Amino acid sequence: MVPVTAPPIPDGAVWISGHRIRAVGPFCEIRDLAGATAGPVTDLGDSAVFPGLVNAHCHLDYTGMAGLLVPPRGFPDWIKGILTLKSQWTDAEFDASWRLGARQQLESGTTTVANIETRAHQLAGLRATTPLRVFSFLEMTGIRSGADPERLLAEAMEVLKGLPPNRGGVGLSPHAPYSTSPALLRAVAAAARKEGWRVTCHVAESESEFDMFMYRRGPLFSWLEPQRPCEDCGLGSPVQHLHRHGLLDSPLLAVHVNRLWGDDAWRLAARGASVVHCPRSHTYFGHPRFPREELTEAGVPICIGTDSLASTRVSRETPATLSLIEELRALATADPGLSPRRMLAEVTVHPARALGLKSVLGELNTGALADLLVIPHAGSTTTVEEALVHHRGPVAATMIGGRWEWVGPGMSDRVPTGTSGGPP
Description:
Blueprint: E1 12-17, E2 20-26, H1 27-34, E3 47-51, E4 53-58, H2 75-88, H3 91-107, E5 110-117, H4 123-127, E6 133-140, H5 149-161, E7 169-174, H6 182-195, E8 198-203, H7 207-215, H8 219-224, H9 238-244, E9 252-256, H10 264-270, E10 274-277, H11 279-285, H12 292-298, E11 302-304, H13 324-334, H14 340-345, H15 349-354, E12 372-376, H16 384-389, E13 397-400, E14 403-407
Helix pairs in contact: 5-6
């Protein structure tokens, strides 16, 4: 058992009651504690059990775009490419892509996804197709359409408030500083504070975005200047831009943050923001080194996200899978000095806290939701975290809310499928 918030437990057990964990510890202690009240015992054999992974940033509906966009010369070229591709896709293609991404997440041990949603009219139906805990952040732009910010926000809130109950939650996602207006950022910040919702935003992702807001120059600025008012450019960094318009005053998942300036890291930390790093997307675009040290020194929690397969390098040797474990392996390659324990925290406890679910998700502990993943492991507890980072292919099994929602062929004879009291 790998609780994450405590050392790994050899010959461990987790006692599950309904949707939650009642106790975690050595098997002999849990057996004595449960006594006659214990239900059937499932022996997973030579395995390691982790909390279900929490994906802090994802675009499920772009899963089917894997390999369809050639790695661009510059970030604006990629934006133009994906806008063109999206305009050619049908509702059915987006539906199938979203579902494929959700299935790949489940099979790779992710149980909770902070997903950017672009298909408002399909969202209720899509969320009903998966057992994942989907936190749906509805994306808003408005620059190209010239739509009124208050109307955009009202429409988004109507969609989110009209969704049927779900294992996850909802939030708002003004896309990025360059694709939204200051008025929309201010309106989103005020609405999120009133509703108690989280906000997520792509920010400081590329050098061209940084140049646009710091210096009113660069390829992104040149492309967008005819399409949007640019009085908000040349006034400071993208992070300062979000702060100036109130977005740091709401619980924020700041996605990418590849470029810092001045006191940006301390500004994020002081406002309680979390930063989401997407290793494979980072490599795809060839961004400079992620400023992990500066963020950590300032006290900013770092989470890991998959981003999308539309910004992931693919080849015949490396077929594309939307997997946090693949992101961990890419991170280990890019930053070999990081310990597996630290990386594990960035796909469990850190994103759980960023979503306001500290002690509820991302750890194996009394009272936490019974979300688990299982991988084969016959080694010692000293190598178990590294074993997850280097695991390849689907996990052995995934549990959400006390129910086995994915069971691989190698575990089908051990796991009693369908065990659950239903979703919480």
